[in-house]
Amino acid sequence: MSTPEEILQGLYDETLVGNAPRVLELTEEGLMLDMEPQTLLFDALIPSLEEVGARFERGDFFVPEMLIAGRAMAGAMERLRPLLAETGVQTVGKFLMGTVKGDVHDIGKNLVNIMLEGAGFEVIDLGVQVAPEKFVAAIEEHQPDIVGFSAFLTTTMPMFKANMNALEKAGLRDSVVVMVGGAPVTQEYADAVGADGYAADASATVKKAKALLHEKRSKVPA
User: What is the pLDDT of residue 57?
Assistant: First the structure.
């Protein structure tokens, strides 16, 4: 049986290389040693995923490496999520995510979800082909801090504006931060549709989401 220090180091190293079976084994070992789920998350899994993001930004890692590391982390999160909920661990914020109507691409979205979860966000994923009215209903139900619209096809990018119009009409625009992203999306396009934020990749999304959330909360009067 490994020591707690060895488990944390192992979780960090194996998440980095995307060894999902070993990450799950080490997670179970840690729990058997009565290690706190938040210790496993904040002292090993999140730092490892942050390192994955840093390597991606430097050009040392590419999308496949990010994906396998993300999947390894996701496996551990499946095990830890209910335990973290029991301990009442404070989430950073609530992020509602979906691929817009007409678009069925979700690899990028799923990777962003994993990175956000790893950073401490509670993520509600509406899946693909999400119509404006479905976004509106989900915002009313879950009251997220941030909503993310994802599009992979150039032809579905106009749905961003349709979604924004739906939020305006429902009187929800001011209550949520809106982020947009996807392969064909640019900062200019995000500005044109009136989004609050844009990020080019999963790692950048986490940083931008945290910054926008901090900005939003600092504006709220005490």
Answer: 79
